[in-house]
Amino acid sequence: MHSPISNGLWVRARSVVLLYLAIAQTLGAEASLIAFGNSYSDAGQGANVAVHAALGITQLNNDYFPAPPYYQGRFSNGPIYLETAASALGDVLNSFAAGAATVGVPGSSSVLPVYPPYAGEQSVVDVPVPSGVQQAANFLSQNGGVARPQSTYILELGVNDYIEVVSGIENVTVSGVIQTINQILNTLYNVGARKFVVLNVPPFAGTPLLLPPFTPANESAAAQALAANLTASHNSALTAMVTSFNQSHSGACVQIFDIYSFFVNLLTNAAKEGFTVSPVTSPCYQAPNFFEGFTAGNEYPVCSDPDQHIFWDAVHLTKKANDLLAQDFVSTFPQLSES
Predict the structure, then answer these.
(1) Phi and psi at residue 242, in whole multiples of 5°?
(2) Are strands 125-128 and 195-199 parallel, antiparallel or unpaired?
(3) pTM of structure
(4) Domains plus CATH for the chain?
(5) Rounded-to-integer distance, Cα 264 and Cα 322, Å
């Protein structure tokens, strides 16, 4: 069990909103791609900022979270797919996404356990990170309560909620997650947003997280079955919700980016894409404790051939896999830019 965050840390953690907005201000209202989500969409200013604010660290320049061998606050060994996609599209990305974020179902929480020895801490500290609902609120606070209709708003949410269900941490439902995504869409639509891309949930049943050693061997099959059921239910409900939203909201264009199929195709055709490691789910970064790996520095082994691996760690993609995801995103949405 993670140690509860102290009252003092809760007070300091409230400064995450101000620090978060100050850093994002350089991209500001003119960004053409606005992202809300979790670690797959965290471009180095989500969990990184939240952890530093909660721990009272004022210098962000070279003290990244997650720590090396992670790349400059990203949950990978290089830039995430949205950064690469934005560059290819000629767009400006402003990502409010934060590693460990959940969508924000009422009563649930978005918490990131930070293990020692990061920042000199002596015990595990549970750091609150902005949920999808809070990320949207942060964006609107920065932009005067207005969402430009020319921008595209990207929502990559839900998988962390279901990981917590499988782990026994939360008991949110698929309907609750879908309703909250719908709430975020409505919030943004009501203040001007019209163009949206919503990611469905990837097949996280097939990630290293639900395989030994990250999940005990005697629990792995049941965890994978539950994950697969939650994923299928979510993606079906998301399609229905998006169809209904487009029909009931004048001028709205909500599109789904099918990251689920991307993962299935990638895992099925790994060798064709140059991923030769066996098994295909073998992560490059060999931290046995998933969360501890974010702060362990170079204590655990790192493979010498990351481009042969799909997974950087138990959940996240390598830079090469992120680049392929970016290619898929660009080919799916070649005209997201304002022109």
Answers:
(1) -65, -40
(2) unpaired
(3) 0.90
(4) 7-332 (3.40.50.1110)
(5) 15
